[in-house]
Amino acid sequence: MVRRLPWHVAEVVGVRDETPVARTLVLDVPRWPGHLPGQHVDVRLTAEDGYSTQRSYSLAAPADGDRVELTVQRVEDGEVSPYLTSVPEPGDVFELRGPIGGWFVWRPESTAPVLLLAGGSGIVPLMAMIRARRSPVPFRLLYSVRRPADRLYVDELRRPVPGLDVTYLYTRNAPEDWPRPPERLGAADLVTAGWPADFAPDCFVCGPTGFVETAADLLVDLGHDPARIRTERFGPGGA
Q1: Residue 207: CA atoms inside 13 Å, Cβ hemisphere, count?
Q2: In the chain, at which end, N or C, are there fewer CB atoms within 10 A of the end residue's CB?
Q3: Beta 8-19 vs 93-100: how paired, if at all?
């Protein structure tokens, strides 16, 4: 039998605005069982009249006792994200359950090079992997967004970290004098900023469905082992 995950009460202890439409919620979750980078949780909101609704969100940081972080990007016609990105303040509570997922995870004891491909808010679970890295394992991140204002974790990713290379890809508007024209992810980007297939990297791809399917196909076409390509996708939006 499969054990059913319990719901936990999560108290907001901090908020950080990442962009005008995205916010990180820092939560205290008593008796949190811990999680792996790449896993996600279900969030449940319940109104005073008893109506409840829930959505899934990736964990944005590695396990840290009872502390959990979620980064949520607002979907204008959404039912949960408009609330989470504008209303909660320290002291507010809601429910979550997890961790969920065992395939799209990076284990810090792994020694293989890592290639991270993010489309839009697909950076969130990949950021948990970056933050969990404590060894000299080399990481390369290709982060595709529509325009510079859409980037999450700008200050953190700007800081130089030995063994972490970050490449931004813009699909609509690029900064002035940017060396690459605005366009979608292509094979040339993976050749220039990714790992060669013969390095046998672990590849993690997260973003909208179209981005994920394109990226996975390009990786296979370039000779990467499909067994080392792990994908996570969500609905419309992103890069």
Answers
A1: 25
A2: N
A3: antiparallel
CATH code for 114-234? Answer: 3.40.50.80
Q: List beta partners, residue 115.
A: 140, 203
Asked if residue 205 has pLDDT above 50, the reply is: yes
Please say whether the beta carbons of 106 and 135 come within 8 A: no
1 has a pLDDT exceeding 70 = no
Q: What is the largest CA-CA distance in the chain?
A: 58
How far is 74 from 23, CA to CA, in rounded Å? 8
Give 96-138 as a DSSP string.
EEEEE-SSS---TT--S-EEEEEEGGGHHHHHHHHHH--SS--
CA distances from 6 to 25, 32, 71, 186, 187 (A): 21, 10, 22, 42, 43
- % of residues, the chain, pLDDT over 90: 90
Which CATH number is 8-100's, of 2.40.30.10, 3.60.20.10, 3.20.20.140, 3.30.360.10? 2.40.30.10
| pLDDT of 235 higher than 90 | no
